[in-house]
Amino acid sequence: MTSPKRSGHPPLVSADLPVEQLTQSAPVPLQERLRLTFAGLPGVQLGPSFVCVPGTRAGHLAPTVAHGPVEAFLAGTEFGHLHPPYDGSVHLMLPGPVAGRAVADGWAEPAQPPGSVLVYGPRDEAEAETVRALVLASYRFACGDGAATPEVGNAPDADAAPEGGDPARIVSAV
What pTM was estimated for this model as a whole? Predict the structure, then answer.
């Protein structure tokens, strides 16, 4: 199955640091669902980002579960973060094939540091499920889990541990 393309034009994104989504901001209730996704993952502590603007909510892995490669982290054990409410995009570290597919299908664009992507904030419930699946792929990468992220429709609740699957299929599973 091919992955869905994100519909419509991509949002405008700042060209300078900090990289921020300037248009098509995610509605606050969808941002809250993404925050709960980060917060509900085993071994994740939400806190300020080491690399982004104030108000950013970052997922920091406990050292006991942070077994991924150095490329799986933005800084320290931070594997991703949700930008402040005026923005609503998500900055993630993803395995190369997953990042490539997310960019090709219009869900994200390459960002700094190299290897990271800015995932556009979801505009509706269906998009929120795809973005949530990408957050789970980033989490798995940071945990050092070579197993895949579940299909989007079968993604676990935010307070449940993810199960195995192929991370390169994360977006194609929708």
Answer: 0.83
Sheet holding 90-93, edge to edge: 44-48, 57-61, 78-82, 90-93, 116-119, 108-111
Please give the structure tokens belonging to residue 158. Answer: 């935010």
CA angle 112, 52, 167 (to 5 degrees): 55
Average pLDDT (120-125) is 97
4 vs 92, 106, 136, CA distance in Å? 20, 9, 18
Handedness of CA 83, 66, 136, 16 (dihedral sign): positive
For residue 69, with 0-12 CB atoms within 10 Å meaning exposed, 13-18 middle and 19 or more buried, which class applies?
exposed
The number of beta carbons lying within 10 Å of the beta carbon of residue 28 is 10
